[in-house]
Amino acid sequence: MDLGAFAPLWFMGMTEIKKYKLYINGQWEEAASGKTFGTINPYTGEVWAEIAEGDEEDVDRAVRAARKAFESPDWKRLTPTERGNLLRKLGDLVKDHAERLAQIETRDNGKLIREMLIQTRLIPQWCYYYAGWADKIMGEVIPLEKPNIFNYTLREPLGVVGAIVPWNSPLLLTFWKMAPALATGNTIVIKPSEHTSASLLELVPLIEQAGFPPGVVNVVTGYGETAGAALTRHHLVNKIAFTGGVETGKLVAKNAANHLARVSLELGGKSPNIVFPDANLDNAVNGIIAGIFAASGQTCIAGSRLFLHEKIHQEVLERLIDKASKIKMGDPSKMETEMGPIALKEQLDKIKKYVEIGLQEGAKLVYGGEQPTEPELRKGWFFKPTIFTGVQNHMRIAQEEIFGPVLSVLTFRDEEEVIRLANDTPYGLGAGIWTQDIQRAHRVAREIQAGTVWINTYRNISFASPFGGYKNSGYGRENGPEVLREYTQVKSVWVELSGTVPDPFVMR
Ligand code: NDP
Q1: Coil, helix or strand for 410?
Q2: For ligand 1, what atom is nearest to the CA of residue 251?
Q3: Which candidate, 313, 297, 319, places its Cα nearest to that of 406?
Q4: Which of 62, 164, 395, 445 lies at a CB distance of 3.0 to 4.6 Å from 453, suitable for a disulfide?
Q5: Which ranges in 244-403 belong to alpha helices (H)?
Q6: 320 shares a domain with 337
Q7: Domain that holds residue 435
Q8: Is pLDDT of 3 > 60?
Q9: Which 8-state DSSP code applies to residue 52?
Q10: What is the pLDDT of residues 256-266, one digit of tens each?
């Protein structure tokens, strides 16, 4: 019996290194090249698992398996209700295994166990929501101007979906793609980030147990530039659902354009969090802290540009520094830890570089800006919560996504000015507005160029509400009913009712 994902390879000291293979057509397989790579625990800096390094050849096998499964009666002939039932079952299984999956994610990306647990416990909701949609995706009868024609539409799946997800919320972002893709009858090949492949591979046995036929879900692990790029280039892939950085997103869109695959891009952000002087400041401070320091700032929706009205600037700043100084950093697998390490060494270096850039640009560092020195934190890739004031909107630390716990604080005098400044960025993913003035709240929400606007809250997300970007933050939407269009195409069916088709060469 092939234990696949559960097979330990060898022992290094006391540490068990796990070996994970590719999952193609219902089978665990080595990469065609035989190559593997290590995945690192950012808290210890140690390799804890060995992952198969898939490449173009493996992607080709997986895509062909997914295409075959798409056409196979085992999948194609399932009723939408039966498809929904499989997803519902998968949701139940994830619920039972939520803790184990969360622990794996924490080990892989260093995010807090309490955050990853929230995510893995939420994932079943995506399964149940799209299971419910599976048999409610309908065509329409069109009231044509031609009385002898009955015209109706069918909403059909696209075929093979290629899903590419980043390391910050690996399973949750996979389900944002996989649940609607399967509910609508597509098959899927998933390329997780090289840094966080393990949780998806540990999910595979649950997918099998739920009863999805072989080939419907395939996982090719490997590097973005090789396995990821090969997936975007493959002519049998009908849609690419991508979450990641802007520059990678552009490459993905270019590759997909060559074979006219559909693309949805969930990219980065530099989201403004705007505090008006009449706001409830206790709530606003909590929202600001959660917006930038949760997940050590490694979220696309980080509220990394804080706009404080000049009247409350000093007060809010003092409160933020006080709160930031009390954040408990440490072992992400402990429930009491409030901020974990940065997921990757490259990411830590990038954050350090941006702190230098901020100082060179003339911004004032009022808190953090360095790695903590406590012995417990030295081994991991930790970075202190960091706050810059005196930031001007043209500065790079106000314009570029840092993807770390770095808050750039700007001030404003009035509504018009803050709308102009908030929109003056290439990104448009999220925005927060803090005010008690209901008219102003809705007025500003309309003016902000972003896919999500939160009023007196921040970082709220649901399976039922559309999520996506304006401008460089991408296109296409995930979640809610909106995403169902991204995974389906419409067929118009024409039926002649009179029983007589006139001779086209006889003049009438
Ligand atoms: P990347 O764009 O580097 O990577 C994202 C995914 O793309 C990974 O699976 C990566 O694989 C893969 N990839 C890399 N190069 C290619 C390529 N040439 N062709 C195809 N796939 C490729 O982003 P990060 O991993 O750095 O993730 C952080 C970014 O993701 C941030 O910009 C963040 O804002 C964004 N993000 C957006 C979200 C949203 O919903 N809008 C949510 C979360 C993050 P590998 O890791 O193996 O290189």
Answers
A1: strand
A2: 18
A3: 297
A4: 445
A5: 246-257, 281-293, 313-326, 345-361, 375-378, 396-399
A6: yes
A7: 272-455
A8: no
A9: E
A10: 999 999 999 99
Shortest-distance Cα residue to atom 4 of ligand 1: 244
Mutate to test the pocket of ligand 1, among 248, 254, 467 (most ligand atoms within 8 A of CB): 248
Q: How far is Cα 465 from Cα 1, in angstroms, rounded to an integer?
A: 43
Average pLDDT, the chain: 94
Digit-coded pLDDT (tens) for 85-114: 999 999 999 999 999 999 999 998 888 899
Residues labelled catalytic: 266, 300
pLDDT for 380 equals 85
Kindly give the pairing relationship between strand 160-164 and strand 239-243: parallel
- pLDDT (tens digit, 9 = 90+) per residue, 297-319? 999 999 999 999 999 999 999 99
Answer yes or no: is the C-beta of 247 below 6 A from any ligand 1 atom.
Answer: no
Residue to probe by mutation, ligand 1, list 175, 193, 486, most atoms within 8 Å of CB: 193
Is any ligand 1 atom within 6 A of the Cβ of residue 167?
Answer: yes
Q: Are residues 217 and 360 in the same domain?
A: no
Q: Are 408 and 358 spatial neighbours (Cβ–Cβ below 8 Å)?
A: yes
Q: How far is the CA of 268 from the centre of ligand 1 (A)?
A: 9
Evaluate whether residue 508 is within a structural domain: no
User: Is 319:285 a contact under the CB 8 Å cutoff?
Assistant: yes
Structure confidence at residue 362 (pLDDT): 97
**What's the structural domain count of the chain?**
2
478 DSSP 8-state letter: B
**Coarse DSSP helix, strand, coil percentages of the chain, rounded to the nearest 5 percent:** 40, 20, 35
Residue nearest to atom 16 of ligand 1 (CA): 224
Q: Is residue 344 part of a domain?
A: yes
Q: Give the number of the atom of ligand 1 that is nearest the alpha carbon of residue 429.
A: 41
Q: Is the same domain home to 357 and 433?
A: yes
- Which candidate, 188, 199, 171, 210, places its Cα nearest to that of 93? 210
Supply the residue whose CA is at minimum distance from atom 40 of ligand 1.
266
The most confident of the ranges 118-122, 333-337, 340-344 is 118-122
Tell whether 154 and 290 lie within a shared domain: no
As given in the structure block, the two tokens for residue 167 are 């390391």
Helical (H) or strand (E) element with 438: helix 438-447
- Say whether pLDDT at 395 is over 50: yes
pLDDT reading at 8 higher than 50: no
Ligand 1 centroid vs 120 CA: distance in angstroms? Answer: 20
Q: Is the CB of 54 under 6 A from ligand 1?
A: no
Phi-psi category of 403—alpha, beta or left, where left has phi over 0 and alpha has psi -120 to 50? left
pLDDT over threshold 50, residue 6: no
Q: Are 487 and 157 in contact (CB under 8 A)?
A: yes
pLDDT of residue 15: 58
For the CA atoms of the chain, what is the radius of gyration?
25
Does 237 have pLDDT greater than 70?
yes
For residue 384, count other CB atoms closer than 10 A to its CB. Answer: 22
Pocket lining: 37 vs ligand 1, CB cutoff 6 Å: no
Q: Is the predicted pLDDT of residue 5 greater than 70, yes or no?
A: no
CATH number of 193's domain: 3.40.605.10
